[in-house]
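Slide 14.
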Amino acid sequence: MRPVYITDINGVSGLSEGVRNLLSPICGRYTFRANSYYLGLIDWDDPADPIRRIVIPDEAEMERWGRLDASDESTFTVAPGVEHKYSYTALLLVNDVCGGYCRFCFRKRLFMDCNDEVVRDVEPGLDYIRAHTELTNILLSGGDPLVMSTRRLSEIVRKLRLIDHIEIIRIGTKIPAFNPHRILEDPSLLDMIRAYSTNRKRIYFMVHFNHPRELTDYAIKAVRLLQEAGAVVTNQTPLLRGVNDDPVVLAELLRTLSFCGIPPYYVFQGRPTEGNHHFAIPVERSWEIFEQARALCSGLAKRARLVMSHSTGKIEVLGKTDGHVYMRYHRAADPEEKARFMVLESNPDAYWFDDYDQITRDYSIDLPYRCFGPE
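Slide 15: predicted structure.
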């Protein structure tokens, strides 16, 4: 059964008229979109329901806090719709629509009228990718690529597969959580995966399950079909106050993913994005939640890394003591920063790397050779 999409908060029957009137101005600033399937997962009798918190606007979004582009993604734009931040990986923004708009979205700027980072014509971006032979990984994102027609998505994937140096195509999507019927009812999507996810050059789906209740029977079946067609599926989620910041809930998410054969990939520290303060958790508290959750998991469920997608790179939070926090660059925009290990003075009120005043010890690793070609 195909879900009905709702783009007007007044169409959400689970909300009273008074609440809808209260939330309408928020939807004028940050776009609202949901569907009948996902709204059906909400317990409307619980005002703190985590699924409701993910997709239904909140007055707290109007609080002045953060920046629209908290990780300065736009500064890494090298061609229309292309961000090239890391040596071997580029991001191709193919769409500015999602199956639903997460209220904690760190790219909400893409869904505003003034944004021009996403382009409809991906050819200039493909030309850039063809010319840069150091690239081996391309991440299709936006917006959600699975909102596009399979015909259009297949054409982009086909053209990428004709580029010899592109080994991995990744598709970032929350569609298995928002609308698994998109996958269940489209055999042509599975045919596309069978055609272009080869033994030596896989298609990866980076899915976004944020809470265990999103892992419905429909969602798990949709993921299984992607896997059976030849795709590799991994999960990533931010840590979100009121959604998965309880170690027991986070552990249930990580464990259930592992039971379903979906490796947990990244757990993200929430970016300090405008309108997202009510989802934010201090870095050191995030590490505590993350480690408490991992303690409840098997090795297969605890493969995720806790990272910040900072403007300078992916910074992994490794641990803490009473006086210090330990981090390293898991990926770095500057090749000189690769694998840099940092000891920082503890700051329990820090929400982001920039909130730490002092690095007390700083270790850089001298990499004697380049394993995978030129930078």
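Speaker note: Residues 5-62 form one domain.
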